[in-house]
Amino acid sequence: MGKYWYRHRCCICGQFVSWDADNATPFGDANDYEPPDPEYFCIACIKEQKTHYRKHNYLPTHWAFAKWELELAIEMGFWRAGPGGAAWGGWRKIDKPLPEDYKWQTIVGWEGNTPKGEMKWPRTKAT
C-alpha cells in the first residue's frame, strides 16, 4: 500500500494546516455512534472568526471548543455554563444571570477555574 500521507485541512478555507493546529469538535447527532471528527482552523481563519464573533457579540458552541474560542470568551466576558450535572454547555455572559438549574462549568487546563477568576492557558495562544 505504500506510505500513507494525511494532513489536516482548515474546515473553512481548505488550506492544509499543521498537526497541532487549533481545532474544535462540533456536537453530533443523537444517532451518532461516535463523536464527529474535530474541525481544524488555520491562523487566517481564526483571525476572521474572532473578528466576526467580536462584531456580533456571541460565540459558537462546540462539544470540545478550540483554544481561540476560550481566549475570545475571556476577552469578551463569556464563560461555559450548562445544566447541573451535564457534560455539555454553552457560552454565557458572566454579568447576566444564568437560567434556573444552570451552573458555571469548570474548564480543565485553566488556573482559577471560575468565570471571574484570572485565567492562564498553559499552552501557547492560537494567534
Structural write-up:
Helix content is 19%, strand content 13%. The protein has two helices and five strands, in the order E-E-H-H-E-E-E. By secondary structure, the protein is an alpha+beta fold. It has one domain (1-127). The longest helix has 14 residues, at 43-56. The strands form two sheets. A three-stranded antiparallel sheet has the order 4-3-5. A two-stranded antiparallel sheet has the order 1-2. It has helices at 43-56, 67-76; strands at 23-24, 39-40, 78-83, 90-93, 102-104. It is globular. Helix 1 (43-56) runs parallel beside helix 2 (67-76). A hairpin with a 6-residue loop joins strand 3 (78-83) and strand 4 (90-93).
List descriptors:
127 residues, disordered C terminus, 19% helix, three-stranded antiparallel β-sheet, alpha+beta, 2 helices
Q: What quaternary form is this?
A: single chain
Strand composition percent: 5-15%
Helix-strand category: alpha+beta
Q: Determine the number of helices (DSSP H or I, runs of at least 4 residues).
A: 2
For the largest beta-sheet, the strand count, sense and barrel status come to: 3 strands, antiparallel
How many separate domains make up the residues? 1
Q: Provide the succession of SSEs.
A: EEHHEEE
The gyration radius over C-alpha positions equals: 16 Å
Q: Flag low-confidence runs.
A: 118-127
Number of strands: 5
What's the rounded overall pLDDT mean?
Answer: 82
Strands of the widest sheet, in order across it, are: 4-3-5
Shape: globular
Distance between the termini: 38 Å
Q: What is the percent of helical residues?
A: 10-25%
